[in-house]
Amino acid sequence: MHTTKELQAKVRDIFDNQNYINEPKRLYEPIQYSLSQGGKRLRPLLALLGCSIFKGDLETVIPPAIGLEIFHNFTLLHDDIMDEAPIRRGQASVYKKWDTNTAILSGDTMFVLAYEYVTKTKAEFLVEVLRVFNQTAREVCEGQQYDMNYETQDLVGIEDYIEMIRLKTAVLIAAALKIGAIVAHANTDDAQNIYDFGINIGLAFQLRDDLLDAFGKLEVFGKPIGNDIVTNKKTYLYIVAYEKADSMQKAALDRAFSEENNEAKIKAVLELYEQLKIKEETEKMIEDYYEKSLQYLDAISIEKEQKAELYDFAKGLMLREV
Ligand code: IPE
Ligand code: IPE
Ligand code: MG
Ligand code: MG
Ligand code: MG
């Protein structure tokens, strides 16, 4: 068993010592930029944790763990173009620092790099790990498409929203844990339970992301506050606001969302969110998914002490500001 701190240090060490620079520089520099910037590096950490709690050999999980983080960063390069988000991790997004074409092609290259790492998985686990990874990678794209579809779709229900964030965010978190479990020889039930635990903390994680996008602090969160409002994202906050609003408040929401000036739009929407206590509603939902995640963690057939790091981790993730 390793502590989360030890595993975090290991992940940091791995990425601090990677060099992706190659020719042509314009292709590889953005890759180095993105991967050395840090971020939380949650997915490789979860892969290591998933392996560690089942007493697996960490060396076995490192190649797919690196692949998962590169894949995640690939999605961010493209996501920032799609979301017109100029800042990530407190620095210029790749498409802003360079340009859109660069972010597309460096992103594509990262997708390939991710597969190069995943396919370095030990032969005995490779077929199963690839199966999980392939399905997950496709689902992330499906989720991203729903996210884009919903920008211009008025009627998006809570269930549609949850399915969209399950796909765009939760499955990758869940897959990281499951891949860790697979290479540690966990049994099928345990691998499924850790996956479902991951889905639920992943849903809580994206709900928190939506919340911080509206109510976080740029200096801490590292992303521009109000970007989801500007781009008319159908976030949980948006959907619940319309659900809770009376007819006057609905009209006010409509007016706020059709405001042309971005700053005025953000301000007007946030005022209504506050009036409608949307922050509190969202926190309740985060708590619900967190509670649900614990049921799956409870069901994993290993000693409770062996799962302690995951219990703590889930709690910390639910309360994050970053
Ligand atoms: C950002 O993921 C995209 C979402 C799924 C919300 P993270 O919040 O894990 O981003 P980094 O890698 O820590 O910057
Ligand atoms: C995250 O959605 C999903 C993926 C990047 C695949 P967001 O668009 O909310 O992520 P951020 O807020 O830009 O990190
Ligand atoms: Mg997005
Ligand atoms: Mg985005
Ligand atoms: Mg977001």
Global outline: globular
H-E order = HHHHEEHHHHHHHHHHHH
Query: Uncertain segments of ≥5 residues (pLDDT<50)?
Result: none
Number of beta strands: 2
State the end-to-end CA separation.
27 Å
Q: Give the strand order, joined by hyphens, for the main sheet.
A: 1-2
What's the pLDDT, averaged over the residues?
Answer: 97
Q: How would you classify the helix and strand content by structural class? A: mainly alpha
Counting DSSP H or I runs of 4 or more residues, the number of helices is 16
Q: What level of helicity do the residues show?
A: over 70%
Largest sheet: 2 strands, antiparallel
Beta-strand percentage range: under 5%
Q: Tell me which ligands are bound.
A: 3-methylbut-3-enyl trihydrogen diphosphate, magnesium ion
Radius of gyration: 20 Å
Strand and helix map with partners:
Blueprint: H1 4-16, H2 25-36, H3 42-53, H4 58-82, E1 87-88, E2 91-92, H5 94-97, H6 100-118, H7 123-151, H8 158-183, H9 188-215, H10 218-221, H11 227-230, H12 236-244, H13 247-257, H14 262-275, H15 278-299, H16 308-318
Antiparallel strand pairs: 1-2
Helix pairs in contact: 1-3, 2-6, 3-4, 3-8, 4-6, 4-7, 4-8, 7-8, 8-9, 9-15, 12-15, 13-14, 15-16
Bound molecules: 3-methylbut-3-enyl trihydrogen diphosphate (2 copies) and magnesium ion (3 copies).
Residues 79, 83, 85 line the site of one magnesium ion.
